[in-house]
Amino acid sequence: MKLMDRLHRLQQIDSRLDEIRSELQTLDRGEELSKKADELDQALKAQSEEVRNLRRQIKDAELELEDTANKINHFRQLLNSGRIRSGREVEKTEKELQELARRKDQLEDRLLAALERLESLEKKIEEEKKILEQSRRELENLRARAQERYQVLTEERVRLTSERQELVPTIDEEILSRYERLRARLGGLAVAHVEKGMCTGCRVALTSQTLRSLFNRDNLETCENCGRYLYLPPAPHNGEEP
Ligand SMILES: [Zn+2]
User: Between 20 and 30 A from 205 (CA), which of 7, 24, 52, 63?
Assistant: First the structure.
């Protein structure tokens, strides 16, 4: 492998390692979905608690309603029985009955409202449970996919890192440190392909002298404009060993 090809391979490896690092950083492991599912779970717990309270209220209202109805019956029977003789007693009992009727209305209203709230809440809980279940399934898939991708990427990283470790000692230290400086300064790209007499790193035409020199692939040239190392792919039919 010629120096030009080794440098080019190093650039390929480093670019790919950059991509892998960035993909690993942005890998969706479902944090957002997990947060949403937790929030929904919390909401469901609060709603279930409300359902329990409502059921208790309904039970209480039903009991009190029954009690009130019994009292109303009792006073009506008392009035009808003719056992109360005094006008004042009658008046008092009638007042009591009015009071009880008002209370009964109140309880019936409260009971109805609670029943309606219970019905809509139970419907809502049912729907939210389905959404939560679906979110959890999605989350599981997402995590499995992320884990799989993580595996693939880290394996590739190990492979490339070991190839890089073998490649680096075959490149002159001075060239290597210039390569690293270029990469740091020029968005990670220190070795540019030559295409149609141009450096693809900066899109500036190369001098004919540089181009002539590049045709001998044993030479290492840099772009006069951006300073990148230049890579000329081997010509397919000149019998040159890559
Ligand atoms: Zn250039």
Answer: 7
| C-alpha 186 to ligand 1 mean position (Å) | 10
pLDDT, one tens digit per residue, over 68-126 is: 999 999 999 999 998 888 899 999 999 999 999 999 999 999 999 999 999 999 999 99
Q: Which residues of the chain does CATH 1.10.287.1700 include?
A: 23-167
Residues with CB under 5 A from ligand 1 (ion): 199, 201-202, 223, 225-226
pLDDT tens-place string over residues 150-197: 999 999 999 999 999 999 999 999 999 999 999 999 999 999 999 999
Comparing CA positions, the residue from 142, 115, 10, 133 lying closest to residue 54 is 115
- Distance (angstroms) between ligand 1 centre and the Cα of 240 equals 26
Q: Among 17, 8, 10, which residue's Cα sits nearest to residue 156?
A: 17
The answer to whether 191 and 197 have CB atoms below 8 angstroms apart is no
Distance between Cα 206 and ligand 1 center (Å): 8
Burial 201-212 (b: 16+ CB within 10 A, else e): beeeebeeebbe
Query: How far is Cα 6 from Cα 238, in angstroms, rounded to an integer?
Result: 20
- As beta bridge partners, residue 78 has none
Q: In CATH, what number does 23-167 get?
A: 1.10.287.1700
Output the CA 176–ligand 1 centroid distance in Å.
18
CB 204 within 8 A of CB 219: no
Provide CB contacts within 8 A for 140, sequence distance 6+: none
